[in-house]
């Protein structure tokens, strides 16, 4: 499959390319991204360079769909759907610090979710969100997108700190996408 370009009111989502390498490398130095995203550590420029051809391969195999989120012609983040081949995928995302807190991620993720559930897009029935337990900003975004909190996965997330507890939430193509109550977020506010 050729990479799909998506547009929102404030962003263009398209496959990352060579012009994004410096911005991806810089973004992946951010401690929050390193804490919650499974990245090589230390993250070197060669990792950003190698990411671009891998994205193209995944699009071609229809195994993972990755977009660079661009706002005002600058890289604001990356969002992906990791397909399981059986009608489900996991959504993952990160945003550069200057793009956080403006609702841009929620806007971009809505476009990706719409594409994922579309018969002309990913043809998915279910999208999962997973994160290291305690990643409150990511959980708030997932809740705003209508994901239903499904529980704690003990020692299920593997990252730079080894195995950690994780949260999981799901969204079905038939769900209304209204924000739901998440017990873990109610305790954190």
Automatic annotation (TrEMBL):
InterPro entries: Acyl_CoA_acyltransferase, GNAT_dom, Ribosomal_N-acetyltransferase. It holds the Pfam family Acetyltransf_3. Coiled coil: none annotated. Residues 11-174 form the N-acetyltransferase domain. PROSITE patterns: GNAT. SUPFAM superfamilies: Acyl-CoA N-acyltransferases (Nat). This is GNAT family N-acetyltransferase.
């Amino acid at each position: 499959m050729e990479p799909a370009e998506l547009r929102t009111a404030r962003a263009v989502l398209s496959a990352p390319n060579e012009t994004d390498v410096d911005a991806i490398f810089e973004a992946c130095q951010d401690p929050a991204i390193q804490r919650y995203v499974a990245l090589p550590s230390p993250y070197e420029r060669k990792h950003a360079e190698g990411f671009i051809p891998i994205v193209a391969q995944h699009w071609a195999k229809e195994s993972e769909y990755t977009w660079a989120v661009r706002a005002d012609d600058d890289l604001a983040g990356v969002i992906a759907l990791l397909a399981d081949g059986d009608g489900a995928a996991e959504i993952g995302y990160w945003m550069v610090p200057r793009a956080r807190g403006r609702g841009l991620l929620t806007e971009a993720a809505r476009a990706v979710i719409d594409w994922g559930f579309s018969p002309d897009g990913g043809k998915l029935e279910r999208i999962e969100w997973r994160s290291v337990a305690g990643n409150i900003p990511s959980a708030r975004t997932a809740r705003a997108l209508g994901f239903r909190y499904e529980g704690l996965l003990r020692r299920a997330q593997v990252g730079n700190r080894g195995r950690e507890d994780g949260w999981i939430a799901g969204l079905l193509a038939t769900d209304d996408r209204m924000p739901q109550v998440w017990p873990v977020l109610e305790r954190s506010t």
